[in-house]
Amino acid sequence: MRIPCPYCGERDLGEFTYGGDASKARPAHGSKGAKTWGDYVFVFENPKGLHVEYWQHTLGCRQWFKLKRNTATNEILGVEQ
Amino acid sequence: MAKGYSVFSILKHALRPGTPWPEAWRKAEPKPNYDIIIIGGGGHGLATAYYLAKNHGVKNVAVLEKSYIGSGNVGRNTTIIRSNYMLGANTAFFEKSMQMWEGLSQELGFNLMVSHRGQMVVGVSPGQMDGLARRGNTMRLNGVDAELFDRKEVEKELPYLDFSKEARFPIWGGLLQPRAGTVRHDAVAWGYARAASALGVDIIENCEVTGILKSGNRVTGVQTSRGKILSDKIGIAVAGHSSHVARMAGLKLPVESHLLQAFVTEPVKPMVHHVVSWGAELFYLSQSDKGGMVFGGHIDGFNNYTQRGQYTKVKEIMECAVTLIPFMARLRLLRHWAGIQDMTPDGAPFICTTPVDGLYLNGGWCYQGFKATPASGLTFAHTIAMGEAHELNKGFELERVMRGDTLDEHGTGLRDYRQ
């Protein structure tokens, strides 16, 4: 798989580090309830299809960005700074 | 329907070449309803159906497989069995599984080629040797076999490892579990399928579940590519697709699906007589009966349902292979493939009831699904039939993650690979 870094252009997967689901919203600071935080930390949509996720160009510019990818085909559908 | 295999049936077929062997299990057509439906015809699903029929007398059971039997992870793993666990619920569960492997060929009347060749975990630092000693002691206290080896003893048993002065990771010793080994993985699927079918279980291939029917918070059946099938008890045993299938019932899981690759080289003469694991990186290797080196390492590391491994990981695992076993550099790689597995936050599985009534989950197997097959089937069958956990899978419930009561055995869960 090759990933289009928004700063450096398309590079090999080996230069990047995966950072997980980017569609999760962190609960507001001070939110109460173990379930609120437990769901945020541990429960995943894990879709078979479109997934928005964080990647870091670890062996390049070291910037974090969001990637839209189809998890069933690895087709890259978009990238966001 | 197949009768028991014996030396006589082999002789009969040898004397009359061309006579086809009877099919090992019935090609069942879906009935309108069942007492229990198991989604997923892999090792765990088939074992569950077998123990439901055998131990609990529930024979009106359907196993729904979206492809053919043996097409999923039961045919994609590196065939290793072991029970070198240390923490809580894991120890008794995986040891039970190991004990069940020991008599399973006889019970199923199918040669699973269970080989107790032993598994050697190679330690590469004094600190790691302390860790291995602790693990070995804990295992022995729990009645599991373990032997600690120093460098010289490892060299005697596994002379082909890199014992040179230049070795990047000098070998300090190892921990051997003599009863660990390998099992012919396809035979596990076939053996369980045949035995379950003989007890009356319907094994329905090419039948993909596309929806789970509910009335209120209770399951009532499944929608499949071959029509609607009703049942008020449904078990999910779909490995990497746990999230995908659970979502059909409105359930979100603490699971991410990841790829794990496996590799096999060209066959060579017998050389590796154990399962070898490495302490420097996650890497494990054994030599198949055909002679090929079968090995694997870490997951690819990002959510994936493609069953196609990435080259980056191929390269990393080859580096591990050559660093630990220099002769691997001279072998040609024949094939590599990938399976989808459901990674949990702590690396331990789920065999449990769910918040949806009548829906049961068997998943989150991370790297360790194959060796668990018999105990997983036994305890999942108990959980579905009785509606509550068996003594052995009490620790494998969904809530443990929320409680912070994690079973972080090998540091292979989701939180760890990210750090």
Short description:
The complex is a heterodimer of chains A (81) and B (419). Chain A has one helix spanning 34-42; strands at 2-5, 9-12, 17-21, 50-56, 64-70, 76-80. Chain A is mainly β.
Descriptive terms for the model:
heterodimer, A: 81 residues, mainly beta, 4-stranded antiparallel sheet, 6 strands, globular, B: 419 residues, alpha/beta, 6-stranded mixed sheet, 11 helices, 19 strands, 23% strand
Order of helices and strands of chain B: HEHEEHEHEHEEHEEEEEHEEEEHEEEHHH
- What quaternary form is this? heterodimer
Mean pLDDT of chain B: 93
Strand content of chain B: 15-25%
Folded structure, characterized:
The complex is a heterodimer of chains A (81) and B (419). Chain A is mainly beta and 81 residues long. Chain A is 11% helix and 40% strand. Chain B is of the alpha/beta class. Chain B has eleven helices and 19 strands. In chain B, a hairpin with a 5-residue loop joins strand 15 (284-287) and strand 16. In chain B, helix 2 (43-56) packs across helix 9 (373-386) and helix 3 crosses helix 9. At the A-B interface, strand 3 and helix 1 of A face helix 8 of B.
Give the helices and strands, then pairings.
The complex is a heterodimer of chains A (81) and B (419).
Chain A: E1 2-5, E2 9-12, E3 17-21, H1 34-42, E4 50-56, E5 64-70, E6 76-80
Antiparallel strand pairs in A: 1-2, 3-4, 4-5, 5-6
Chain B: H1 7-15, E1 36-39, H2 43-56, E2 61-64, E3 80-81, H3 88-108, E4 119-123, H4 126-141, E5 147-150, H5 151-157, E6 173-177, E7 181-182, H6 185-198, E8 202-204, E9 209-215, E10 218-224, E11 227-230, E12 234-236, H7 242-247, E13 256-265, E14 275-278, E15 284-287, E16 293-299, H8 311-324, E17 333-343, E18 350-353, E19 359-363, H9 373-386, H10 399-403, H11 414-418
Parallel strand pairs in B: 1-2, 1-12, 2-8, 4-14, 12-19
Antiparallel strand pairs in B: 3-7, 4-6, 5-6, 9-10, 10-11, 13-16, 13-17, 14-15, 15-16, 18-19
Helix pairs in contact in B: 2-6, 2-9, 3-9
